[in-house]
Structures are given as C-alpha cells and as structure tokens.
Write a structure and sequence with these properties.
This is histidine kinase. It comes from Paenibacillus terreus. The chain has 591 residues and is an alpha+beta fold. It contains 15 helices and 18 strands. Strand 1 and strand 2 form a beta hairpin. The chain is elongated, with a radius of gyration of 48 Å.
C-alpha cells in the first residue's frame, strides 16, 4: 500500500507539472510560428507593393530618356526620307543626333553607361559611352534589333551581355502613321541603379531579393547568390500579374509585377527562418519543463513519504477493528489534530455506531421494514446529488447564471416533490414532471452524448402509480447500462393507453445483460413482496415492482427484456385511471 500511494503521488505530480508545460510549450511554439508567419506575409506583401511602384517609376524614368531622344526634332529630320539632301546637310543632321545623345547621356547619371541609336534605313549605329563617341555603318542589323522584330515587341530587356552587372533596355523607333520599324534606341544600364530601392525589401545585405523576367528566370540578384529554386521559377512563370505570394516546400516567395516593363520583383524567405522562432520557444519550454519535472519528482517523494506513513498506520488500525466481538477493544486514538486524526476519530465513532447497528439489526421487525421502505422511496442517489452539485459549480464559472439557475431549479423541484407530497400514489403527470427534472439535469451533464426522447399520450397522464416509480428505473439505466457504453447514449420513454391500462416503456442502448443475469433478475421480479429485501444493487427496480403489485394486484408490475451489448427494455403496466383499484380482466393490455 505504501509503495502504491507513493508511486501514484509521484506519477501524478510529475504529470501535473510536465504535461501542462509540454502542452503550453507546443501551443506557444505553434502560436509563435503562426504569428510570425502572418506578420511576415502582411509586411512583405505591403513592402512588395510599394517597392514595385518605386521600381516601376525608375524604369519609367529610363523610358522617358528614350522618349526624349525619340521626340527630338533632330531625330525626326534625320529619319525623314529626303534623297535630295546634300552630304553637308546629312552631316549636320548626324551632328545633331550626337548632340542629343550626349545631352541625354550626361543628364542620365552614373547608372546609364551607354546609349546607342540604330537607324535601319541607313544601317548606321550611333554609340555614346565613356570610351567612345562613334558612328558606324553596319552590314547587318544588330542582334537586338532582330530580336525586337522576331518577338514582335516594342521593347525588350537583354541580359545576355558579358557583364552580369549591366543590362540593356532596347526600344524600337516606329513610324507614327503605319508603325513601320525605323530603328531602335538602346540604353546600357547598371543593375546597381535599383539597389537602393531593393534595400526596402531585403535590408543592407539584400539576401533573397531579386529581379526576374516574365518567364520566372532570375535576371539580377544583388547578393550574388541564387535564391530562387527551380520549383519557384516554374511557379512564377505560370502566375499572372502581382502582387502576391506562394509557398513551396522550402520557401515563401513574394512577387510583384514591375510596370511598365513586365519584370517581376521577387523576395524569397526560407521557411526555416519563420520556423526558427517556434523552435526557440519550444527549446526554452522543454528546458523549463525538464527542470520542473526534476523538482516535481523531488517534491513528490517528500510529500508521498510524509503523507503515506500516517495513512498506512491508519490502514493497519482499520484491519484491527472487530465489529462483531464486543469484548475486543477498538484501536486507541493517536490524538492527531490534522486530517488523519480527523479520519481516526470518525473511524472510531463509525465503528462504535456499526457495532450498535449490528446489534439492533437482529431486532428489526416488520414495522421497521415498512419505515425503511418509505425512506427508500424518498431518497435521492447521493452520487447523483454530488454530480449535480459539481455540475452547478462548474456552470457558475463557465456559463450564464440563467443556465445554473435551471439546474438548481430542477434539483429543487425534485426535493419539493419528495418532501411535500407524502401520498403513496401519485398521478402519472406528477411522476413524469419529476422524471423530466431528473433528465434535464442529466442532459446538462452529458450534453452532446445523451439522446433522450419522450412520447406521451395525454389521456394516460391522469392514471396513478406509486410515487417515485419512474425516476429510479431511469436512474438504473444510467447506472447499470449507459455508463458502460463508449458510444452515444440513447434513452427512449413512451407512455400510451393499452386497452384498459397504461403501458410505460423505458428503453436504452446500454451494456445490456447476459442471459443468466436476465433470468436471475426476472426471478427476483416475480418473487413479489417477499423478495423486497436484501436484493443488492437491484433494490430500486424490485422495490417499484413490489409496490405496483401491492397496490394493483399481480397482473400489474414490471417486465424486462435485455440483450448483452444492445441495451435493455423495461415495461411498466398500471391500470388506467386506477385510483387504487384493480382490473381482473387480463385483456387490459391486449392479452
């Protein structure tokens, strides 16, 4: 016993200390990860939106440089087809082109490292950069010009150059009237022009921030590391215009379309970065849990030792009590003033009372039995009362006061019915009201699990039967049937006329009975009033059956059917509008 108590205390205290910490730690870790994920998604979607706008404005400024060249009068004059122009006029026009290109080049800033203009009709290429200021006559159009024509586009971005830090923005020159391609203007630009804007997304290191083409392929990564997986690249290629985000197996990918050129601004965040906060929370929680477990074990051993020793001593004293032989003295009291001493005193007093009760039991007469029967009629199962009070206590803190009041009112009405109606017979309506108060409490206790139905024919409600007949039988259904069933509980009560009598059926889907137990119980029910006493756990059912037979005769009473694992069906037969008289016609219930 001592080892059992100590072991249970140790296990209980360890579980009480460790399990809540593990559960709270897991919940905190998941909440941390979810919160971090939500914050990262919201922040990056907002940042992607505004950064995409700023990046689009930068590309618009680059387009404006090209438009400045396109709309210049000098370029229009040069592109005009005038065969009669002299060489001096053409030279003057070419000089104007250089002046325009130089003006745009030096006003564009350090990030534009070169400008070129190709005129298809004359196959001439004007080039301006830090190394040259040149005019060439080409035997074939530049590759970039052919790419424009082949792709049927007005502009393209080319990253096929030898220097990965640069790209070229190529826009065609079209005749206004028929959109005939007359040439192309090319800007050679450093990608670093966009670094300051990209820092809005990735901080100073810009890891995971890049610019991709409309096909999802990476074009520029300022960190120099390829952060985009093949899975993310394929997903990007299939998406429409942004902004938005998606998850892959390893990363969160945020994207936005850069107007007006159709590139994609992309930010990649590894999933491990978001999960790291949850891992840290879990690590700290498990560390605290381990320390708590060690302290709990030490505390449990100490408490178990202090608690188990007097309990074992008390148990030894209990084994020494002889309730029959009055000559043997009861164990002496230890004089303790704590709970153990309180138990010893109560045990001593209880032993004295039990001895007295055993002596008086032999002298009980028929009048005493009758009094005990009346007391039995009036009792409420203490376990039911205890559970109901616990239910009320829980509802006070968890639900509205009105819900608690309903349970208190039902319990009060049950006591009122027992105390204030002393008659031996009660109307079926009164019995049904008492049952409804009991079922109201049970349905609150087992909400969602108990399914209860009631079918009543109103003309049967004026019949009479012994007081407290229905509720004890229903209570037996819970105690001996439903409480042993793991699935949902079903309890059906039906009341109807049957010939000149009333048939009350109480059916449940509980554990049922074995054939041997059913036969034993049927024999006890058939024993009549002589079998009223000393029937163990079935005293409630037998009591009801005996009282019905005493009031109405042997034709009335209780029959029972049951099948193990499928439930029990109890039938109560009473006269209709009985008033205490009996009906001799056995056809009252249909034969």
């Amino acid at each position: 016993m001592q080892r059992s108590i100590r072991s249970k205390l140790i296990i209980t205290m360890v579980l009480l200390a460790v399990l809540p910490i593990i559960a709270i730690t897991a919940l905190a870790a998941e909440n941390s990860r979810t919160s971090m994920e939500s914050e990262v998604i919201d922040t990056n979607l907002s940042n992607m939106k505004w950064t995409g706008i700023y990046l689009g404005e930068q590309f618009s400024q680059l387009n404006n440089l090209i438009y400045t060249i396109q709309v210049s009068p000098g370029l229009s004059e040069y592109l005009t087809d005038r065969e009669e122009d002299s060489l001096s006029n053409r030279f003057a026009e070419q000089r104007k082109i250089f002046e325009i290109l130089n003006s745009v080049y030096y006003s564009a800033g350090n990030h534009v490292v070169g400008i070129s203009l190709y005129v298809h009709e004359t196959s001439t290429l004007f080039t301006i950069n830090s190394m040259q200021n040149d005019l060439q006559t080409l035997s074939a159009p530049p590759v970039a010009y052919d790419d424009l024509a082949r792709q049927h586009k007005d502009f393209i971005i080319d990253t096929s150059g030898k220097d990965p830090e640069k790209f070229t923005l190529i826009r065609s020159i079209n005749r206004f009237e028929n959109q005939e391609r007359l040439g192309a203007i090319t800007l050679e630009i450093r990608w670093s022009a966009f670094n300051q804007t990209l820092e809005l997304l990735g901080g100073m290191d810009k890891k995971g921030v890049l610019i991709a083409g409309s096909d999802g392929k990476e074009m520029y990564d300022p960190s120099g590391e390829s952060a985009l997986s093949s899975e993310a690249t394929e997903h990007l290629a299939a998406l429409g215009p942004g902004p938005g985000y998606f998850r892959t197996s390893l990363e969160y990918v945020f994207y936005n379309t850069v107007d007006p050129i159709g590139l994609r601004l992309v930010k990649v965040i590894p999933k491990r970065d978001i999960d790291q906060s949850a891992i840290n929370t879990m690590t700290y929680g498990l560390l605290v849990g381990a320390v708590s477990a060690v302290l709990s074990v030490l505390l449990a051993v100490f408490v178990a030792w202090r608690t188990a020793r007097p309990i074992v001593k008390l148990a030894t004293s209990m084994r020494g009590i002889d309730l029959i032989d009055e000559r043997k003295e009861l164990p002496a009291r230890s004089g303790r003033t704590d709970e153990i001493g309180y138990l010893e005193n109560n045990l001593h007093d209880m032993a004295v009372r039990i001895r007295s009760h055993i002596q008086n039991e032999y002298k009980i007469n028929l009048e005493k039995r009758t009094a005990e029967l009346k007391a039995l009629q009036s009792q409420i199962n203490p376990h039911f009362l205890q559970n109901t009070l616990q239910l009320i206590g829980g509802m006070i803190f968890a639900r509205q006061p009105a819900d608690s009041y309903e349970i208190i009112r039902s319990l009060s009405e049950m006591f009122r019915y027992i105390v204030r109606e002393p008659d031996h017979l009660a109307s079926l309506q009164s019995e049904l009201n008492h049952l409804q108060h009991y079922m109201h409490i049970q349905q609150k206790r087992f909400s969602g699990r108990l399914h209860y139905t009631l079918e009543v024919e109103d003309e049967a409600l004026q019949s009479e039967l012994p007081k407290l007949s229905l509720q004890p039988i229903v209570e037996n259904s819970f105690t001996h049937g439903l409480e042993f069933r793991q699935e949902d509980w079903k309890l059906d009560v039906s009341i109807k006329r049957s010939g000149a009598g009333v048939l009350i059926r109480i059916r449940d889907n509980g554990a049922g009975m074995t054939p041997e137990r059913l036969a034993e119980l049927r024999g006890m029910l058939a024993a009549g009033t002589d079998g009223l006493w000393a029937r163990g756990k079935s005293i409630g059912l037998i009591n009801v059956a005996a009282r019905i037979r005493m009031h109405f005769g042997p034709m009335y009473g209780i029959s029972i059917n049951s099948e193990q694992g499928k439930g029990t069906d109890i039938c109560i037969r009473i006269p209709w509008e009985s008033g205490g008289w009996q009906i001799d016609d056995q056809s009252a219930f249909g034969g």
